[in-house]
């Protein structure tokens, strides 16, 4: 909670005071550096220079990090500065980063983005907002039980790979033994006993997951995986359960990632699928109605009622954002998909199917 309080204080100071505190002497500079996990100081001989103005614009744009600015010769001497400079001070990793290059607002913001988070950050309730709210939308996750032998060695390997990808990929580790993190393991289709393991995810509009070819967790293998991802040479990893032997023996057919394509897009069949999550209350309420619907069309020559656990199976053709989601895949070669938006009753479903997927269909966007 202390860390959160620090963040709130920094934010309030930035909102209510100047974008960068004026540092008249060494004591003021030292106090600022000491005040927060991350601090940015601009050293400018002329505070009215173009470079100083760019620095202040960058300071305006960042809410959660304190900035300072100084033209004091004593402050320059204290930090061994001879020319205009910007330094990011931090209480982790290498301790400080010196800005190099053309001093513009955008370059400074990129520099701060790349250096203000630890090389490797542990996923906790406190760090989650920084992880998800940050600029870096590609994350590599190391699922590492703190109880594992050589815990530190594995973490060090991960950390030594991270330096090459600063500002491009965020390196995160998750204690896979911790009960709070079980949902995240489920989301990646991982079981506790499969950890330590590495996965990569992009948090763009569609979350896409990637899995390394090798289970080896050496720094070289992790770097190779990240480089291949950045070069666009890795296909998304789609989870699938194994196909149950009796998947088609019941009125409601069971779909998994491995058989979804051939069943849903069978050109001779009209396939109505419930995408569900085992923990979802609405799905549990729907289950007996869906079973009755399966019974109703059990012997129908071209209507198939099916279901898929979307927490354990993913398919390229369909992205599921809420549960239950009901989609209809009409016969024919067009690979059409119709969203069902009608009443979740046996009558509503039957009307929809008898109308060829029209009565109860969601309006096109």
Supply the number of helical segments: 12
Instruction: Look up the CATH topology of the largest domain.
Output: Glutaredoxin
Stretches with pLDDT under 50, minimum 5 residues: none
Query: Spatial order of the strands in the main sheet?
Result: 1-3-2-4-5
- Counting structural domains, the number is 3
- The helix/strand class is alpha/beta
Q: What percentage of residues falls in helices of 4 or more residues?
A: 25-40%
Strand residues, percent: 15-25%
Oligomer: single chain
Largest sheet: 5 strands, mixed
Mean pLDDT: 91
CATH class of the largest domain: Alpha Beta
Fourth-level CATH superfamily of the largest domain: Glutaredoxin
| Radius of gyration using CA atoms only | 27 Å
Gap between N and C termini, in Å?
44 Å
> What is the CATH-assigned architecture of the largest domain?
3-Layer(aba) Sandwich
The counted number of beta strands is 15
**String of helices and strands:** HEHEHEHEEHEHEHEHEEHEHEHEEEH
Shape summary: elongated
In terms of topology, how is this protein built?
Blueprint: H1 2-16, E1 21-22, H2 26-35, E2 38-43, H3 50-61, E3 67-70, H4 73-78, E4 85-90, E5 96-98, H5 105-115, E6 120-122, H6 128-133, E7 138-143, H7 151-162, E8 170-174, H8 182-187, E9 197-203, E10 207-210, H9 219-230, E11 253-255, H10 260-264, E12 270-276, H11 281-296, E13 303-309, E14 325-329, E15 338-339, H12 346-354
Parallel strand pairs: 1-3, 2-3, 6-8, 7-8, 11-13, 12-13
Antiparallel strand pairs: 2-4, 4-5, 7-9, 9-10, 12-14, 14-15
Helix pairs in contact: 3-5, 7-9
